[in-house]
Task: structure prediction
Amino acid sequence: MQSLGKESEAAIKKDQRYLWHNITPYSEQNPPMIAASASGSWVTDIDGNKYLDGMSGLWCVNVGYGRKELADAAYNQLLSLPYFPLTQSHMPAVALAEKLNEWLEGDYVIFFSNSGSEANEAAFKIVRQYHQQTGQHYRSKFIARYRGYHGSSLGALSATGQAQRKYKYEPLAAGFLHVAPPDSYRRPAGMTVEAFNLQCAQAIEDKIVWEGAETVAAVIMEPVITGGGVIVPEQVYLDRVQEICRNYGVLLIMDEVICGFGRSGRKFGHQNFGIKPDIVTMAKGLTSAYLPLSATAVRKDIYEAFKDNSDGYGHFRHVNTFGATRQPVRWPSAIWRFWSGSSWWSVPVFWGRGCTAGYPGCLITSWSAISAALD
Result:
């Protein structure tokens, strides 16, 4: 156990007495680092030790810590109107929805929530209700990929393809199916990368056919699997997946919670592949984690199916107390001013290329801009 100051010892005792940590085993011998402040990419603990935050929090502090313009935006918003629910509306939400639609380069309507898990939960409900309201009553199943991660709430965890995260929490929600990811590094000997990626895409079509195409509602995937190993698909994979979804009337949900907002060198990860998802979920970098906010972007024609409320149940009957209350949605506008005035977008691409080229002693099996996996 490292040598600790008196302040740290007292704080750790209180921590171990009162605080339950996220996804971390309890250990008296390995107490947590207790952060006191942060600036840029560096975090300082209560003893004054500095740490380089290579994970940017939990893949989320995309523009770094300590940006005064973000604190000022929060201060001004707290003075004018700190809270207002989106059962009605307010201008920061309108402006943010407009900007997201612009960045997505499509025609989307935006539903706000608090976290990536909630953004995906909203997407699942939207998809099922959409199919109900367009006469496709049997479409309820979702196809996801092993090693993918979509959140920790019940539905989002059901979509997640990591067995370790589900152990002792099952049974989970019904209707979630999984196929193998395009992990090209572990492809069969003698098979080309392109052939392997097409084989993995074919597994999605096979699953749709075997389950009955009329029962499959959507496919959900990250453009690049991140927490499950940084698995980067080939262009042919996503092209074929999009084609399969369109051929069978299955919606395509792109989970951009980690890949979005510059982490891949583009505004959203799927834009590197030129595809057009039906639904895009996002969080984390949306506010650079300065406040909780997430969004579910839904193609406009899907949204139109929710306008007929003749039976009293046609509208999207989903609500959360804090989603896009005024304060969090002021953050992105301040962040965008920073992005617009810098070459920030190009940094991840060049840094990622440098990492793959600069360490011949390491086997880097995959990389996507500033995310990389070593074997």
